[in-house]
Amino acid sequence: MRAIFTILCLLVSSSVFAQSAAHERLKVMQANPASLQAAIAAGKKASFFCANCHGEGGVAKTSDVPNLAGQHPTYLLEQIRKFGSGERIDAFMQGLIKVLSDDERAQIALYYSSVGVPPSVGDLALATRGKVLFERMCVRCHGADARGNALYPRLAGQQQPYLQKSITHYRDGTGVRNNPLMKIATAQLKNDDIVALSHYLTQLP
Ligand code: HEC
Ligand code: HEC
């Protein structure tokens, strides 16, 4: 079982890195501090339109829209790629993403990853239950602090309704969010487990 799991992880992670030209641009921009700072400044400018929904500095204006602040740049690029290819469904995002160049994608991802995200308030009793579930079922990928890395997104401080909606889509196989690891990880969750998990994650720093 563990061997199969490891192979699955490797397959998914290699596909994350192989794909987009924007990933290559990201690496070039990250290569030295001066090019990184220039990319972050360009990304801030290029994201002016995104701020209508994702907020100034990447903290969402409404809670069914995700925060982009503090998110890992590789994950952001991978989701932009998925919107572009139709592997992730959101009518507005799919249309919008097509107009961004590879450079703009990489710059925007670097900008959002450079700003911090403040934790939100969660229901305390639900969060306590969510913590137990998270530590049992999710930490091995998302990490004890849920701050993510190049392979797994940051969940700490994410908007509660957005978390609830996303986890439910993976579990139910609606086609909106597709990922084999998340499909397996969420298969056993009941609706109230998902509510508890999302209240736990939203209040993490
Ligand atoms: C009209 C509102 C709106 C605008 C403008 C907008 N977005 Fe989004 N964005 C959304 C919504 C809603 C979602 C969540 C879709 C879902 O439920 O899966 C989303 C999701 C995302 C995600 C996935 C985040 C995650 O945690 O998985 C990224 C990345 C993203 N948007 C980038 C951008 C960028 C870059 C721009 C500007 C070029 C932008 N968005 C403009 C509404 C918007
Ligand atoms: C085997 C590794 C693995 C495990 C275990 C796992 N995840 Fe994930 N998770 C991922 C990957 C990979 C992604 C990115 C998937 C994609 O591209 O849509 C992800 C994405 C997510 C997202 C979407 C974040 C966003 O910004 O849209 C949420 C929410 C999430 N996971 C919650 C959980 C919860 C809650 C658990 C435990 C019940 C869990 N995950 C267990 C690997 C894992």
Quick overview of this protein structure:
The protein is built from twelve helices and no strands. It has helices at about 1-20, 20-30, 35-45, 50-55, 75-85, 90-95, 100-115, 125-135, 140, 160-170, 180-185, 190-200.
Counted by DSSP, the helix tally is 12
Q: What small-molecule ligands were found?
A: heme C
Q: Any low-confidence stretches, pLDDT <50, length ≥5? A: 13-18
The overall pLDDT, averaged over residues, is: 92
Give the number of domains. 2
Give the assembly state of these chains.
single chain
How are helices and strands ordered from N to C?
Answer: HHHHHHHHHHHH
CATH architecture of the largest domain: Orthogonal Bundle
Task: Provide the gyration radius in Å.
Answer: 17 Å
Query: Approximately how much helix is present in the residues?
Result: 55-70%
